[in-house]
From TrEMBL:
Key words of the record: Carbohydrate metabolism, Glycosidase, Hydrolase
Protein name, entry field: Trehalase
Cofactor(s) essential for the protein: phosphate
Protein's pathway: Glycan degradation; trehalose degradation; D-glucose from alpha,alpha-trehalose: step 1/1
Enzyme's top EC category: hydrolase
Length: 594
């Protein structure tokens, strides 16, 4: 059985990531990329679907663990009756092949350790052939090969399609394991030196983190979220994945299990804004370049998400041989939302490029041409219903948030032309569109009786995305309609002191059975909205409660189950960490002015 979602910590090499449990078991790892098939899928099934345990013999959860300083190098400690041992897990920055390094170090006494490596390629379905070569144990099946060695060599043996390692470490002794993925048709991968790699990883992460400009009261939490966002970046292209996992459920035993190992324009532009606001202009520039490449072509073909290097086909299918996290099935790979119309994305992209420009991000020559063609397309589309930012699988609607973001797109395009009148564009027409959208939203998307914006035109339902209205500039925070909306969302979408995305009842718009937890990003948005509407104490109190939901190493999934008191959904999730950083900035008075 996998652990609780919050039992996991992430390590990664900016091309893929692994999740390691408190019990020392690596239960999720996709190789060679975030979106490749997993060779460890115990997270979505059981040990037979692949995992790598390294822990004291007979031990359960560790005594404590922490990332070392401002890095993604994880130290896990077990205090046992015979002594204390530390396992240091990390993935070195990639040369050619991805490596996972696990260094076992005796701290005191003598500790008997046990290793269990069950490699199962293709999401737990393929048991590879194992052989010994040149001091390695090598697993091969189809295109994949995985090489394992230890320094010094320890006793390893195979039994029941599992590789076991038995050894003892005394105080001051170290045993390093290096696991390397390699295309099976190529020759032996180059060896990495585990100790040199550790030194480089520590230096690289520390140097990267030192660029952070945020110095406010929540610096540790902010930095951990930024490191996590960086860990979700696919360095070769600059793409940013929404989370490291697929199918961690939004409801235990429910069907709301989705694959987040792709680049959403929405999630990634919001990540970009956070990076720009905290001083990481290099990553912001790389993502902007990824974006311009990904969306190049006919604006009618713009997708709401792409693969790591801009791939357009992400077909969704079910993986029936995996039982799902705590029985939550189906497990899905790919994401059918790729074909949806989500009008908000145009607003997010234009806002983010505008913000990047205002923050001093070097201009790209053809960036404005892309923005212009997106605007031309949006002008012809904004009156249509869409699936909205929540990617509903029910009928299309006139979602208020989508229209507000269409207003944002027009607003940022107009403002860019006002500042740079030499650029080509149609300011009169975009201004007219901006006014039309504003009028229509206030007319059709506002419930005058309840004094609140609604989820979609003509509905009685509420949507936490309307909390973003004051942030976008659509209406000022002091507007009574904004204040009314904040009150209504807080009252009607409350879930155990946090916030649901929208009402979940029989008439739910999303077309899906079952329920879900409180949505963490929305809960951060409520804190932002309370702060901007002058309720600073309440904003801070909510923010502190949200911080307390992070796991022991500062990580957040997508949702929180207030009844069970546990995290839900894909993990770690960019959206939640973006929310954390934005709220910390806003509450510290360091937010970004648009
Ligand atoms: O609720 C159904 C939808 O759930 C997923 O979408 C959510 O995750 C996205 C990535 O973080 C985010 O951009 C979106 O706002 C969320 O609603 C899922 O990816 C969809 O396929 C599904 O329809």
């Amino acid at each position: 059985m996998p652990g609780l979602i919050e039992d996991y910590a992430i390590i990664g090499d900016l091309q893929t990531a692994a999740l390691v449990g408190k019990n020392g078991s690596m239960d999720w790892l996709c190789l060679p990329r975030f979106d490749s098939s997993a060779c460890f899928s115990a997270l979505l099934g059981d040990q037979d679907n692949g995992h790598w345990l390294l822990a004291p013999v007979g031990a359960a959860d560790c005594t404590n663990r922490a990332y070392r300083g401002d890095t993604l190098v994880l130290d896990t400690f077990w205090e046992t009756p015979s002594g204390t041992v530390k396992v240091t897990d990390f993935m070195p920055q990639r040369d050619k092949a991805p490596d996972v390094v696990r260094i076992v170090e005796g701290i005191s006494g003598r500790v008997a350790m046990s290793g269990e490596l069950r490699l199962r390629f293709d999401y737990g379905s393929i048991v590879p052939w194992m052989r010994r070569t040149d001091g390695h144990r090598v697993a091969v099946a189809g295109p994949d090969s995985v090489w394992l060695r230890s320094e010094p060599e320890v006793r390893m043996y195979g039994k029941d399609f599992c590789t076991y390692a038995d050894f003892t470490v005394a105080a001051g002794e170290r045993v390093a394991f290096v696991l390397t993925w390699h295309p099976s048709h190529e020759k032996q991968p180059q060896r990495v030196d585990p100790y040199k790699s550790l030194k480089h990883s520590l230096e690289d992460w520390t140097k990267w983190a030192s660029q952070c400009r945020y110095e406010g009261p929540w610096r540790d939490a902010v930095l951990r979220s930024l490191i996590t966002l960086k860990a979700l970046t696919y360095a070769p292209s600059g793409g940013i994945v929404a989370a490291a996992t697929t199918s961690l459920p939004e409801e235990i035993q429910g069907v709301r299990n989705w694959d987040y190992r792709y680049c959403w324009l929405r999630d990634a532009t919001l990540t970009l804004n956070v990076l720009v606001s905290t001083g990481f202009l290099k990553e912001a520039g790389e993502w902007r370049d990824w974006l311009l490449r990904a969306v190049a072509g006919d604006p009618a073909d713009l997708q709401i998400m792409y693969g790591l290097t801009g791939e357009r086909r992400l077909p969704e299918f079910e993986v029936p041989w995996l039982a799902g996290y705590e029985g939550s099935s189906p497990v899905r790979v790919g994401n059918a939302a790729v074909q949806q119309l989500q009008l908000d994305v145009y607003g997010e992209v234009l806002d983010s490029l505008y913000l990047g420009h205002e923050s001093g991000l070097a201009e790209k020559r053809h960036a404005w041409n892309v923005q212009r063609s997106l605007m031309d397309f949006l002008e012809s589309k904004w009156r249509e219903p869409d699936e909205g930012l929540w990617e509903v699988r029910g009928p299309r609607r006139h979602f208020v948030h989508s229209k507000v973001m269409a207003w944002v797109a027009a607003d940022r395009a107009v403002r860019t032309l006002e500042r740079q009148p030499h650029r080509k564009g149609d300011p009169a027409s975009w201004r007219a569109m901006r006014e039309d959208v504003h009028r229509e939203v206030c007319d059709k998307g506002f419930d005058t009786e309840r004094n609140t914006f609604t989820q979609f035109y003509g509905s009685q339902e509420l949507d936490a995305a309307t909390l973003l209205i004051p942030q976008t500039g659509f209406l000022p925070p002091s507007d009574p309609r904004v204040v009314g909306t904040v009150d209504a969302v807080r009252r009607e979408l409350d879930h155990g002191g946090f916030v649901r995305r929208y009402t979940l009842d029989d008439s739910t718009v999303d077309g899906l059975p079952g329920g879900e937890g409180a949505f963490l990003a929305c809960s951060f948005w409520l804190a932002d909205a309370l702060h901007s509407t002058g309720r600073k104490g309440e904003a801070r109190e909510l923010f502190e409660r949200l911080l307390s939901l992070r796991n022991d190493v500062g990580l957040l999934a997508e949702e929180w189950d207030p009844l069970a008191g546990r995290q839900l959904g894909n993990f770690p999730q960019a959206f939640s960490h973006i929310g954390l950083v934005n709220t910390a900035l806003a509450l510290s008075g360091a937010g970004t002015a648009r």
